[in-house]
Amino acid sequence: VMKWFVDASFAVHPDFKSHTGGVMTMGGGAMQAMSKKQKLNSHSSTHAELIGVDDAITQVLWTRMFMEEQGYPIEKNILYQDNMSSILLKNGSSSAGKRSRALNIRYFFVTDQVEKGNLTIEHMPTDDMWGDYMTKPLQGEKFRKFRALIQGDQQD
Questions:
Q1: 134 near 5, Cβ under 8 Å?
Q2: How confident is the model at residue 102 (pLDDT cuts 50, 70, 90)?
Q3: What are phi and psi for residue 8, nearest 5 degrees?
């Protein structure tokens, strides 16, 4: 089972671009991690989350194909998100709202991948979102919790 934790911090850079963070695990600790400034400005946290998944989706799909070619069948490829609005959009829900019409159609590539069974998207509460560690500086207990999870260590 591959688990991807993809998160975005909305408008955190001086030019008001958002930041994408992601972590992939297959059990204990992180196998891959990413942290990058988004190339597009977004008008909402939902849009920033969609851009974040778009930033990560090629790595998500490539890693699955690579692992299967190495002889490791992938039973589940789960992408976790903490933004319910973006999950509704990616799952093609009509309840996502009228503002979603303005979003660029390329972000609906994810919907196609979900329909093909290449990945599933599930909700993960923000307090448990590993990708949060890659999007902004954390302090205290939250920092220690995510550091331990990513390193595969027992929590401090």
A1: no
A2: very low
A3: -140, 145
Please provide the size of the chain in residues. Answer: 156
Mean pLDDT calculated for residue range 115-125: 93
Residue 97 scores a pLDDT above 80: no
pLDDT at residue 109, rounded to an integer: 82
Strand bridging mode 120-123 / 77-81: parallel
CA geometry: angle 4, 108, 77, nearest 5 deg: 25
Beta bridge partners of 78: 3, 120
**Strand-by-strand arrangement of the 120-123 sheet:** 32-37, 19-25, 2-9, 77-81, 120-123
Backbone angles phi, psi at 114, to 5 degrees: -65, -45
pLDDT at residue 145 in the model: 92
Instruction: Report yes or no: 47 and 9 within 8 Å, Cβ to Cβ.
Output: no
DSSP, res 130: G
What is the average pLDDT score of the chain?
A: 86
Cβ atoms of 83 and 46 within 8 Å: the answer is yes
Query: What residue type is assigned to position 8 of the chain?
Result: A
